[in-house]
Structures are given as structure tokens and as C-alpha cells.
Amino acid sequence: MRLTSHQRARDLPAFRGRRRRAWAAVLAAGAITSGVLSGPSASARPASDPELTTMSVKSPPGSADVRVLLFYGSAAAGEESPVVDAGIEAIERIGLTGPAAQRFAVEATDDASVFTDEAALGRFNSVVFLTGGGDVLDPEQEAGLEAYMEAGGGFVGIHDAARAEPYSDWFTGLVGARPASTSPAAVQRATVEVGDRTHPATKDLPVQWKRPDQWLNWAKNPSGEVHTVARVRESTYQPGQSKNGWDHPVSWCRDYDGGRSFYTAMGGTAASYDETDFRNHLRGALLWTTRLARAGCKATIDANYKAERLTKPNQPGQNDQIGEPHGLVTAPDGRVLYIGRGGADSSQPVVTDWNDPDIGKGRGEIHVYDPKTGQVTLAGALTVFGNKGGGDELTKVEEGLLGIELDPRFEDNGWVYLHYTPHSKINRDTRMAERRVSRFTLDLTTNRLDLNSEKVLLKWPVQIHSCCHAGGGMAWDSKGNLYIATGDNNSSGFSDGYSGNNPQPNYKGVSFADARRTAGNTNNLNGKILRIHPEQDGTYTLPEGNLFTGKETAEGGGKTRGEIYVMGVRNPARISVDKKTDTLYAGWVGPDASEPSTTWGPAKYDTFAVITKAGNRGWPYCMGNKQPYRDRNLPDPAKPLGWYDCDHPKNESPNNDGLVNLPPVTGNNIWYSPQGGGPDFPRDANGVPSYKQSEATYLLPWLKGGGQAAMDGPVYRYDASVASAAKWPEYWDGKWFVGDFYDADQPRNAVLTDPATAGDGGLPVHSESLKKIVPVGNDGIKNLMDWKFGPDGALYVLDYGRGFFTSDGKSALWHVTYTGGGPTPAADQLVRSAG
After folding, report:
1. Per-residue pLDDT at 132 exceeds 70
2. How far apart are alpha carbons 115 and 780 in whole angstroms?
3. Cα separation values, 548 from 145, 336, 435, Å
4. Same domain, 460 and 498
5. Which of 428, 426, 570 is nearest to 492 (CA)?
6. Which of 34, 295, 615, 703 is the most exposed place for a label (fewest CB within 10 A)?
7. What gap in Å lies between CA 328 and CA 308, rounded to an integer?
8. Against a cut of 0.90, is the pTM above it?
9. Nearest one of 135, 165, 167, 270 to 214, comparing CA atoms
């Protein structure tokens, strides 16, 4: 007789208690060792129970010490689903094949009484639920399964197993999620994004796995409570009204209640079990749950991370802990150096009068955090043009101390590279300044910067009449080349928030609203990512493979700069280089248009790009995936001319002193507008998008903007040799971190790209949110300014604070560490047949 749910809730604790006492007896008898099912030999396990007459047994040679129980009991009325026979046959075949050390015996039954026979159940390393769902276990049987898991057992649930034991909270935790009240019943072909490249169930699968199945929707999304190894991309099928959105888990795992649980929502069709990839998926799940293999199933569980603020608020009127946060770098010994751009706290006076010699004068501060002592040292301060005040608005300026990097041999020489705008070099008459990259020496004992040690590597002019877009990020590759990101030195106004291509406004002959003068100019270092090779004597050479040689003089004497590696970027505050591949990653902020215009072109697109070779990224001619702007020119910039040609851009600005014919535009990998991520439009015969909002499609549904400001992050590289309990797990290896200054709907994600297409603008193939790991909110990391991994394998993050052009009580350096522990089972708990 089946008990009611009320009786189950009342009586289950008593059943559980009896089952735990029974399992304690099994433990004492030696069937289980060290809290997990042991697998030394068949003779060490209880013999098969002759009463379990409904079991079929398939045992490969040498596998008798590793057994899998396949339970297919169902409460569903009617004939048995053909999925059962297909699943049993497939799992038996998996156990019989593969390397000898990975084989196992399979025993299939629909008799739930096995869960109340401790001796019988104790023979199994893992239990598979291949069930049609429903209330398939009575309370005592469920208690037996629970005690089995507590003793270190393994569980694999397939498809409708998520519908089993519908009244049990414990079983809900075991499978991880329950289906929504409605899910599409039809078999549909869809794309599965395989994000975990280390788990044995997924490491050999395609990153984009296209296959037909029945796709379940979830009543509650389990992400963050389980470790998701694969997601289904809803844009590739019809998910129905109860869809889960871009984050739709389809397979996951977790260490649960003393044991190991793996669930996949796939396998809803008999044909699934004939697929080689799906059988490999199940094989990996079984290897982990039987203890034939180890795996990390904790990496994306939110509770396994700790975010800790490292710096205190500044003392009143001082920047003793932190300046206006603008960049950080980690040293090999664990020290963190971070810079303040130049804004003082709000109590300090601001000079906005161009007649005053101190206009815009600020302190670009360098602080050092020492993790050994937990103390902060103010290493030094540069006098910069960087305090708010100055510029045509007289309220803000983005120049100042903009970037920091450490020499590759920093441990030996203490060299620090700073990207900044010295106040001593401003010209108040012409409203021009000098930007430079200089090398300084830090005393490694005292953490003090020798300001007299400056070696100026590179310098170039910038206009400071009108704010903004200074960029500032720097990064090294493995060959000792230094990349320097520069903004387009252009006003955000005068073009209605679209292309920064208004040729008219100027101050004493220098344009400040025409980015063709800068980002689109082959003879100007602004709006670029430069690449140089610093030399020991404080000079630099040019590496092979930059965009120009500096010697091009075609088209009537046009010029180039050999330092340019990438042109056509607007405001790249952050860049990074993955030294394993020497791939450059960058992000830049877009213009201000809130929506697309059929007259002028795309809306505000903030952008992230994977850059594998020198090229042109489009600004101010094209953005996103090569979406063009409309040209405007004299005599009336308010009237549009033709659309730019992204494949053959021409710089015909009267403010251009470089080449007219520019390199073709390379499409970008990630772009997002206030309306959503990756907006795209139908195109006419000339390739021009319609720019009609009603016709937009969104290629990156995990993204949405608003008051957005892209902040590129690092590619994580796991180092097994680093003895740090705080380091992030191997799961994150190779994932690229992309984020936004703001924390509302904007991204804070880890993404995977396809190396075969990434350099040409290929879309990411997988993404997952980091917002509960790198916490958002007013008491979290609300305004992300920079983030990098340290030598301890943990993440360091700068929170800008809650104001602008200043530091405040929320400006801080944070440390985000992993606390979940290593892969399971422990190495000494693998079954012996694993070798």
C-alpha cells in the first residue's frame, strides 16, 4: 500500500533512522570503507541476494568489484517506455566496453525492495534512475537510498528521474531540480552548450553539441546550487511558455549528502542511447559516481566562493588606502599594485578656471597591498592632469594616471610602467597635453616608488579642451611586448550619440568631435591598441606583425605609426593577454545613442573582442558585427551622406593626416546595447542593416545594457603547481571574464570562444553569470573597475565606489577566493580497479 504524502512526511524520519542504523551495521561488516563504498574485490562484498529475481546482470571480465544498479521502476500507467530498454542496453554496453580499468557490471531491476536490503544495495558503487517518474519508492525505500548516499554512494538520474519522488524534498535535492508544469513534449533538435571542459562526462564532447531530444523546463533554475556542466540554447528550439531563458541547465552534478549525484535531462528518447556522444556523456557520469574517476562538481556553486574587502575606507581628507580606482596588477610574490586616476575625495577643492595654473591638477596615486601583512602602502603619487574640472564641461576629465604594468622581470628589477598625463606638460593656451608611458623603479623592500627614476618610453599629444576617452589599460605578452590601450580623445557630444564623426567643432584648429582624426587615423596614436617592445635602456623597438611599419607613404604622402597594432577602438579602459596563446582581449565603451537610427546607424554598442592579429576594429565607421554608420561631412554635418563600407573604409575627414584607404574592419565577438546583447538586423543588397528596432534579433541573449561601460577581464589559467586552497578550480581554465562597470543588467560573465572563429569575430559558444560569485549590489562590488587573477589563483577586483571622478567609502580592493575544496572522491577513495 502506498502512503499519502502526509504519512510520508510524518513517518520518513523514523524510517531514515532505522536505515542509518542498518547501514552502520554494514559499515561494521566491512562492505563500506572510510565512509564510501569500497571496491577491492567481489569477495569483499555481500553475495547477490537470490530474492532479487527481477534483476538482469551484465558483468565484463574483471569488473565484478565495480557494480552499477540500474533502477527502472515507474509509477506511470500503461506500457513500459521504449526508453527503458534502450537505456538498459546502452548502459550495459558502456560497462562492457572501454579501458579495462573503467569497466563495471550492470544489474537492472524494477523492484524497489532493493533499497531496503542493505547487503544487496551495498554491493553497488552507483545507482542509476532510468524511471518514468512518479512516487516509485515507499518511505522506507527512500530512506534506504538516502542512507546509501550518506555512506558515500553514487547516483545518476536520467531525464524523467527528475519527476520521481515528487513529495520528497530530499530527492529534489538529489536530482537538483524539478520540471516545470509544462515542458515541450515534441522531440526537437537543439544546441547544447558544453561549458565544463574537465568533467569526464563532458570533456570530450563538442562545445556546441547539436542533437534531438525532449527538453525539460525547470520550475526553479538550479544554477548556483548545482554545478552545471551543460546548458541547452533556447534560441535553437521552441522551449514553450515556461522557458528558463539563456541560462537553461541540462546536465549537472553535485556532491550531495555524503555521496555524488549526476543528473542529465537528456535521454528522453530511445534514439538518444544510440548516440556515441550521449553514451560518452553517460559513461563519464558513471565513472565519477562509481569512483572510477575524480571530478570537480563544486566550481559553479555560489556558496563555494568568498568575496572579502581588503582595504579600509580612507581617513578623512586622505587617500591613504586607495585613490580614485583605475587599474590593478598583481606581482609574482602576491603583492597587488593599484592606481588612482587623479580625482580627490569630495572634500578637496577643484580648479576649473583655465586661467589658473592648477586647473585639473590631481594626484595619480600608486598603492601597494601586501597579503602577508594585510597592510597598504602609498608607494608614490604623480602630479597629473586628472582631477575633475577642465574640459569644455568644466565638470569632468578622464585623463590622469590611467594604467599600470610590471616588468616581466619585476622580481629582479622592480620596474613599474605607468601610463599617465603629466600636469607639467599641459598647454593652457592651446588646451593640449602630453600622454606618456614611463618606467619607474619600485623599492621592493619598502614599497616606495622612486619618482626620479622615470624613463619616458613613449609620448604623444592629446587634446584636453573637451573630455573624454583616454583608455589606459596595458598588458604584456609572452614575448616581452607591451600593449597600450588609448582612447579616441574625442567628445561624446556633437554627433547625437552615434558615430563620432562631426568634423566641425575644434579648438584652435584641433578637432575634438571627429574620431576620424584619432581612432580612424593611421598617423595618430589615439583610439588604438599599441604594441611595442621595451628595451633595457628605456627605449623601445617595434615587433614584427603590427598593423603598419611606420613607413607607408602612399596616397599623396599619407603617414602611419608603426606602434599601432589595432586601430578603430573608442575607449578601451581594459585589455588583457592570455600568455598561453598570446591572444589579446579588449573591451571598449560605445557612444551614447539609446536606440538604433535608420538615419545614422546602430545604438550604443559596448564591445569585447578577441584579437589574434593586427587589424581595424571599426570605430568610428562600423561597430558590432560590421554594422556601418552614416557619413556626415561639410558643409552641414547635420545632413547624412552615404553609409560607410566596412570592407573598404575610407578616411575622408578634413582632420585626417594619415592614409585615406584603411584596412578592412574585423567584426567583434561581443557587443551589447540598451536593448540587449548582440543586436542584429536584416540587411539590404548592399549589406546595410535596416536598424528598425522592430526587426532586431539578439544573438547574445545573456547580455543587456543600459548605462553600460565595458570592462575586459582576464582569461583564467589553472596552475596545478600552485599550492593555494584559495585558487579557482580547473573548471574555469581557458574562460574569458567579461564585465561591465555597472551591476544591474550588464554582464559579469565567464565565456568560452571557439579558437577557430574567435579572431574573426565569432560569437562566444558558452557563457555563465558570475554575479553571485563576484557579488553585485551596494555592499558588494557594484562598480567594477578592474579584475585580475593573482599568483595565488584567486581573483582581485577593484570597486570604483559610488561617485564619479572621486574616491569614497566604497572604493576598495577585493579578493574573491574559492573555498569548496578539491575534486571528489578523494584520490585514496577511488576504487582499486581504476589503477
Report:
1. yes
2. 46
3. 68, 35, 21
4. no
5. 570
6. 34
7. 17
8. yes
9. 270
Of the candidates 318, 277, 272, the one whose C-alpha atom is nearest the C-alpha of residue 194 is 277
579 found inside a domain: yes
Cα dihedral: 447, 450, 456, 458 (round 10): 20
Among candidate residues 349, 495, 233, the one with its CA nearest the CA of residue 806: 349
pLDDT tens per residue, range 320-350:
999 999 999 999 999 999 999 998 777 777 8
817 domain residue, yes or no? no
DSSP string, 79-141: SPPHHHHHHHHHHHHHHHSS-GGG--EEEEE--GGGGG-HHHHTT-SEEEE----BS-S-HHH
Query: Could you tell me the strand order of the sheet in which 432-443 lies?
Result: 401-406, 415-420, 432-443, 448-463
Tell me how far CA of residue 30 lies from CA of 50, 93, 260, 516, in angstroms: 21, 30, 21, 78
Q: Are strands 154-158 and 259-264 parallel, antiparallel or unpaired?
A: parallel
Rounded CA-CA distance 514/490 in Å is: 7
**Conformation bin of residue 454: beta by default, left when phi > 0, alpha when psi is -120 to 50:** beta
Task: Express each pLDDT in 261-311 by its tens digit.
Answer: 999 999 999 999 999 999 999 999 999 999 999 999 999 999 999 999 999
Alpha-carbon distance values, 151 to 11, 14, 31, 48 (Å): 22, 18, 11, 20
Same domain for 478 and 459: no
Q: Is 810 helix (H, G, I), strand (E, B) or coil?
A: coil
- Claim to verify: residue 692 and residue 771 sit in the same structural domain: yes
470/526 Cα distance (integer angstroms): 8
Comparing C-alpha atoms, which of 401, 396, 392 is closest to residue 423? 401
Give the structural domain span for 188.
5-302
Closest by CA position to 326, among listed 384, 258, 401: 401
